[in-house]
Amino acid sequence: MLEAADLVIVGGGIMGLSTAYQLAKLGRFGRIQVLEASYLCSGASGRNGGGVRTQWSSATNVDLMKESLALCRQFAREHRINTWFRQGGYLFLARSEATRALLEASVETQQRCGLPTELLDAHRARRHVPELCLDGVLAASYNAEDAVVFPWPFVWGYAEGARALGVHIDTFTRVLGIERRGRHLEAVVTERGRIATSAVVNAAGAQSPEVARMAGVELPNRPHRHEICATEPLKPWLGPLVAELDGGLYFSQSSRGELVGGIGDERGPDTTSQASSARFLARYARALCRVVPRLGAVKVLRQWAGSYDLTPDHNPILGSVDPVTDFFQVSGFMGHGFMMAPVIGRLLAEHIATGRSTELFERWNLRRFAEGRLLSEGMIIG
Ligand SMILES: Cc1cc2nc3c(=O)[nH]c(=O)nc-3n(C[C@H](O)[C@H](O)[C@H](O)COP(=O)(O)OP(=O)(O)OC[C@H]3O[C@@H](n4cnc5c(N)ncnc54)[C@H](O)[C@@H]3O)c2cc1C
After folding, report:
1. Does the Cβ of 158 fall within 6 Å of ligand 1?
2. CA distance 310 to 334
3. How far is the CA of 12 from the centre of ligand 1 (A)?
4. Whose Cα sits closest to atom 2 in ligand 1?
5. CA 89 to chain centre
6. How many whole angstroms separate alpha carbon 194 and alpha carbon 175?
7. 3-state DSSP call for residue 18?
8. Domains and CATH numbers, the chain
9. How many CB atoms sit inside 10 A of residue 249's CB?
10. DSSP-derived 3-state class of residue 19
11. DSSP string of 265-297?
12. Which of these, 24, 127, 203, 233, could form a disulfide with 165 (CB 3.0-4.6 Å)?
């Protein structure tokens, strides 16, 4: 571990590592230190469903994800690691009038942004997944370019790439405090010692409020447990990831044949606990069998949980915070931070290296909550 660094990144999840890698690639920063409290895939980045999509309701997210999807596609070649990238599309189903209207408006936005997304009736949706029972489905949207990946190689690929460019990454090194004098940061204190630094990135995911508080900054994020499971492998039969915005159900088939899926639960606990529950399995199984009845015979092999990192308006917090110089935030990515990390890491690295700000850093700045400028994004699963 370094004794002094030009930048310390707290959190070795996909956000921290992609930012570290992109900064090192720019070559404008000296010593970069990433500190991870546990092992590299211990947070949400090692526990997610690997869904990567461009179907969003806001043009901002569509445009960001167009770039991020392209970065995901070329990741395997750049990092020389198999990502199990599978471009089978995403099929969104609407079961209420409100969701049908949301899909209609979102498809229009996506088409304006140059995506080939189609709005479908239930009959045409079944062409993509003949096994679907579409009773009660009012509309669907489909984009063949959306994809699923296996998340771990992205975490490992960024970590190896960053290390090769000189970044120091220390696991099992929890940050306990941040020393600050007036507006300026002076050091990060860990369980293994102190690192002098004047610049810190808070990439601690669902624990980002704790880390921000160490520097005297309050974030409005809250953790929310999100559960997920994988079945025994089946022969390939499911093309797209299927998602229901109304009930928060989603499932896809991985390249290894497993069905990987979950369901949102508003009554789930606001906690960073990664415990699994029988309640989840019952709710997921019921919802899944309603959409594909024959899946009732399939065995679940593994179930696990991770934390969504929720903000009050379901949009992230990115960039500087007013009372502290060079204390950069990259948190609040709920159920879609994995897919956004490639593009967000690139943008944040450029912002840190050059000081230049784009409209996104204003839009997603922490101060919007104090100013009452809340944002909206309707196409959030779970
Ligand atoms: C079940 C589930 C399914 C999901 N599905 C998808 C999906 O299909 N597609 C998608 O794009 N996104 C999905 N997500 C969301 C996605 O996983 C997250 O948005 C993303 O991984 C967040 O990355 P992160 O780096 O911000 O956080 P994390 O991966 O949680 O990393 C933060 C790291 O900070 C470390 N840390 C915390 N406190 C400290 C400290 N004091 N000192 C040092 N280190 C610290 C933690 O140990 C952790 O490793 C899902 C999430 C879950 C839980």
Report:
1. no
2. 5
3. 9
4. 48
5. 18
6. 9
7. helix
8. 7-46+152-221+313-371 (3.50.50.60), 86-147+222-310 (3.30.9.10)
9. 23
10. helix
11. -TTS-SS------HHHHHHHHHHHHHHSGGGGG
12. 24
- Ligand 1 centre distance from Cα of residue 247 (Å): 23
pLDDT in tens, 200-248: 999 999 999 999 999 999 999 999 999 999 999 999 999 999 999 999 9
Angle at 203 between CA 198 and CA 22, to 5 degrees: 80
Distance 378 CA to ligand 1 centre (A): 21
Contact indicator for 353, 226 with CB cutoff of 8 Å: no
Cβ of residue 333 lying under 6 Å from some atom of ligand 1: yes
pLDDT digits (tens, 9 = 90+) for 161-210: 999 999 999 999 999 999 999 999 999 999 999 999 999 999 999 999 99
Does residue 175's CB lie within 6 angstroms of at least one atom of ligand 1? yes
**At residue 317, what is the residue type?**
I
CA of 177 to the centre of ligand 1 (A): 21
**Closest residue by CA, ligand 1 atom 14:** 335
Check if 335 has its Cβ closer than 6 Å to any atom of ligand 1.
Answer: yes
Is residue 290 classed exposed, middle or buried when 0-12, 13-18 and 19+ CB atoms within 10 A define those classes? middle
* Residue among 227, 302, 338 whose CB has most ligand 1 atoms within 8 A, to mutate: 338
CB of residue 202 inside a 6 A radius of ligand 1? no
Instruction: Give the dihedral of Cα atoms 278, 48, 85, 251; nearest 10 deg.
Output: 40
Joined together, the tokens standing for residue 159 give 């970590």
The residues with which 188 forms a beta bridge, in sequence order, are 178, 195
C-beta 48 within 6 A of ligand 1: yes
Q: What is d(CA 117, CA 125) in angstroms, rounded to the nearest whole number? A: 12
End-to-end alpha carbon distance in the chain: 38
Q: Does ligand 1 lie within 6 Å of residue 94's CB atom?
A: no
